[in-house]
Specification:
CATH class of the largest domain: Alpha Beta
Helix content: 25-40%
CATH architecture of the largest domain: Alpha-Beta Barrel
Bound molecules: zinc ion
Number of domains: 2
Number of strands: 20
Structural class: alpha/beta
Shape: globular
Distance between the termini: 32 Å
Number of helices: 16
Strand content: 15-25%
CATH topology of the largest domain: TIM Barrel
Radius of gyration: 22 Å
Length: about 500
């Protein structure tokens, strides 16, 4: 009996079930699909009854509804949760939906103004959304150089490259507290974009996160092998900050931050976890990154650090490989031009993606195929073609693992990333035999193929492989904020 209670408490989203009523009608039934749930290990043909935005019933028996989706031969899984999505416009949300994503959050850097971000998206979002509070933006404001509207990363300059005085650090903390009060899910720190931030400033931000009981999502200080400033040093810095403050830590895109030392960085994450620290990580399945060329990432020394040169930088629209002259022109411009950075190898990416510690997160932004293709690409390349990840494990990396990470920020995440009765009906129905990405570096917004249906809170967003017009069921995932805000958390 005790074991049963234990099971019920930890598995399943309780509170909305009305068992015992015969021949119930559902709003929608997904019939005959291969239902997969990484938390319970379910992998069997089941019928799924959906009512009021929730999964009301999972059963081998027949369920009745006005709309029945026939899913024979298709996989039915929890919708994918992308912890790292910058493109938050509708065009990006459409390609995310067709890639199987039902929740896409801006956590690496964070929106400069959380309240405004939430206001703009409410009632206008295909999929679920949310954001961290941005250290980069708070710092830029305190230095008197607030980010231009619509941008999340600053141009390299005094505001990114100079250390903050103690009173400036206090002011940054004040701004971050306000952003967390507004519903921020975490503190986002793009440390490489603010190289002037001292080790102490980083620790102070982790302290603030710990004080709020919230995690830090971070793009670490540096990449490459040159010491000082290696990726190993940068991982040590944030693991140290987590250790001394108690804040949970999520290291974003360990593939592109650690490059050739990715497996070493993963062993550091494993070591930290083995010693009781709450450290998690993620990766995207591409060899190139993308970033603003006028950012501090390209401060002097970037070639030595990354082990690349001008011609490894490519403009996404034209495919132009840069020269020294062209680089200088764009780097010194105040206009933000994003550039593809070819700094990794396929071999490294192929080792990182299957690692059991690694969640899939896209770092999606227009101009890079990872925006549209990350999830289908993992399912096609690593599950089907290379066979280095099982379907169950791939789905775990895309659903349960990010949901569990999000539970550090919001109890609402307990209802996500799971195909269980009582959970939110965020569901993807896809063909595991054919799903594939179509986005390329030349055509980065080509949507993936193979997602037949996608539901967000019970509403069909993708129906028979096509985006449904005029529905916006996406809702915010919010941090604990201030009590009494009156928002559905
Ligand atoms: Zn990043």
């Amino acid at each position: 009996m005790r074991k049963l209670i234990f099971y019920f408490f930890f598995f399943g989203c309780i509170g909305v079930l009305t068992p015992g009523v015969a021949a119930q009608q559902y709003d929608l039934v997904i019939e005959g699909g291969r239902a997969i749930d990484p938390e319970t290990g379910l992998d069997a043909v089941r019928n799924i009854g959906i009512r009021d935005g929730k999964i009301a019933r999972i059963s081998p028996g027949k369920l009745i509804a006005a709309r029945v989706i026939h899913a024979d031969g298709l996989v039915v899984a929890p919708g994918f949760i992308d912890l790292h999505q910058h493109g938050q416009d509708l065009a990006s949300q459409r390609v995310k939906a067709l890639d199987g994503v039902t929740t896409a959050l801006e956590l690496e850097i964070g929106a400069p103004d959380v309240a405004q971000f939430l206001r703009q998206k409410e009632g206008h979002s295909l999929i679920n959304y949310g954001t961290s509070a941005s250290h980069v933006a708070a710092r830029a404001s305190v230095f008197g150089a607030p980010l231009p509207a619509g941008t999340i990363l600053p141009k390299s300059g005094p505001a990114t490259n100079q250390p903050a005085a103690p009173e400036q650090i206090e002011a940054i903390e004040g701004r971050l507290r306000a952003e967390l009060d507004a519903g921020g899910l975490a503190i986002g720190m793009g440390i490489q974009y603010t190289p002037g931030a001292t080790r102490l400033e980083v620790i102070d931000m982790f302290r603030l996160a710990a004080e709020r009981g919230l995690p830090v999502y971070t793009h670490i200080r540096s990449a490459g092998r040159v010491e000082p400033g290696s990726s190993i040093e940068a991982v040590s810095e944030v693991i140290g900050a987590a250790a001394v403050t108690g804040a949970s830590l999520h290291i974003v895109h360990i593939n592109s931050s650690c490059l050739r030392d990715s497996m070493e960085c993963l062993s550091m994450v494993a070591g930290a976890r083995a010693r009781g620290l709450d450290v998690t990580t993620e990766a995207y399945p591409y060899i190139a990154g993308i970033t603003p060329i006028n950012s501090a990432l390209f401060n002097p020394g970037w070639q030595e650090k990354l082990g690349i040169s001008y011609s490894d930088l490519v403009l996404p629209d034209s495919g132009e490989h840069l020269t020294k002259e062209r680089f200088e022109e764009l780097h010194n411009s105040s206009a933000t031009q994003w550039v593809l950075v070819y700094a990794n190898t396929q071999e490294i990416v192929d080792q990182v993606i299957p690692n059991p510690l690694v969640m899939i997160a896209s770092d999606g932004v227009e101009g890079h195929p990872r925006n549209a293709g990350s999830y289908a690409r993992v399912l096609a390349e690593y599950v089907r073609e290379k066979g280095t990840i099982t379907l169950m494990d791939a789905i775990r990396k895309m659903t349960l693992m990010p949901a569990e990470m999000l539970e550090r920020s919001t109890t609402g995440a307990r209802h996500k990333g799971r195909l269980q009765e009582g959970c939110d009906a965020d569901i993807v129905v896809f063909d595991a035999a054919t799903i594939h990405d179509r986005a390329t570096f030349q055509k980065p917004m080509e949507p993936s193929e193979g997602v037949h249906y996608l539901l967000v809170r019970g509403t069909l967003v993708v129906d028979e492989g096509k985006i449904v017009d005029g529905v916006f069921p996406g809702k915010a995932l919010l941090g604990p904020g201030k009590p009494g805000l009156g928002i559905d958390r």
